[in-house]
Every structure is written in structure tokens, then in C-alpha cells.
Amino acid sequence: MHISTDEAPAVVATSFDKLKGSFIYMICGVIGYLPFHTLRIFCLRMLKAKVGKRTGIYRGFEVRRPRLLTIGNSSVIGHGALLDARCGLTIGDNVNLSNEVMIWTLHHDYNDSNFAQTGAPVTIGNYAWICSRAVILPGVTIGEGAVVAAGAVVTRDVAPYTVVGGVPAKAIAKRNENLNYDLGDAILPII
Fold first, then answer.
1. 18 domain-assigned
2. Is the terminal CB of the chain with fewer CB neighbours within 10 Å at N or C?
3. 45, part of any domain
4. pTM here?
5. Euclidean distance between CA atoms 65 and 85, whole angstroms
6. 37: annotated active-site residue
7. 90 phi and psi, to 5 degrees?
């Protein structure tokens, strides 16, 4: 196959972008296992992630496209969390993401003949609690103070101060709206 000189730069740029993305992905894999929050957060900030003050990011987490990741103040990201920020991921203040939570912003369109990628940003409001092994799919907004029960699969927006659970997640309770705790007080420095 012959590639004209007009087309060659686009092919090279695409290959370079893939190589660069692969390199950043490998670096993020190493960052997830560094021994201290401050070191992990420093490295994420070097990769253009926006991480607030008094935030704890525990070991074993995975980040995809850190430059599109924003985490607010005093939030906690649990062990083994997967944060897919390829289409943009915003996590508010005092958010608790428990262990092994998966947040996806990009996936495949199973009806597309080419299995094309599709996605949208995810936003998680202040004081939200995403329990262990919950899955949040692209384009979802989790409202302020909302709770996603363990193992739930969230396919639609969750209203503020609503507790959801199940597959797919459905409203199961309401949460107290008078929240004023600071998760930054409970972060263990070396975990």
C-alpha cells in the first residue's frame, strides 16, 4: 500500500500518540503501587491530574488518561479502584470510593458494525459514597451525597442524597442531607 506524503504525517502522529498513551498507561500502573499517598499524588499531578488537598489515594488503583482526572479535597480512593478518565472524570470533595470500584467513561458500541468506541464524562458530587465493587458506566452523574451500594451497576444518573443498589441500580432509600464530615481527617498516611 502506498501512502502519499500528505497522508504520512497523520499516520506517524497516530502511531506516536499510541506509543505515548501506552507509555503513560505503564507509568500509571507503577504509580498505583508507590508506597505513600503524597508520592502517588505528586506523580499524578506531574501527569496533569488535578488532585485536591488532604486526599488519599490507596495502593493498587488504576488511572486511564490522568490529565482528564479531577479529584476534590478530602476524598478517598480505595484499593484497586479503576478510574477511567479518557472522556473526563470529576470527583468532588469528601467522596469515598471504596475498594475495587470501577468508573468507566469509554466503552464500545455493541451495535456498531466496527465495534466503535463511545463514551461520555462521569461526574461524582460532593459527599457521595461509592461502595465496594460498584460499577459506574459512561455519562453518569452521581448527585451530591448519593450512595451507590456494593456491587451495583449504575447506568443512569443518581439523584442527590439517593441510595441506589442492584443491577441495574435503582433507588432503594434516601440519605440524610445534613452532611458535614471531612474524610481528610481519616486518611492513613502510608497505606
1. yes
2. N
3. yes
4. 0.88
5. 5
6. no
7. -120, 125
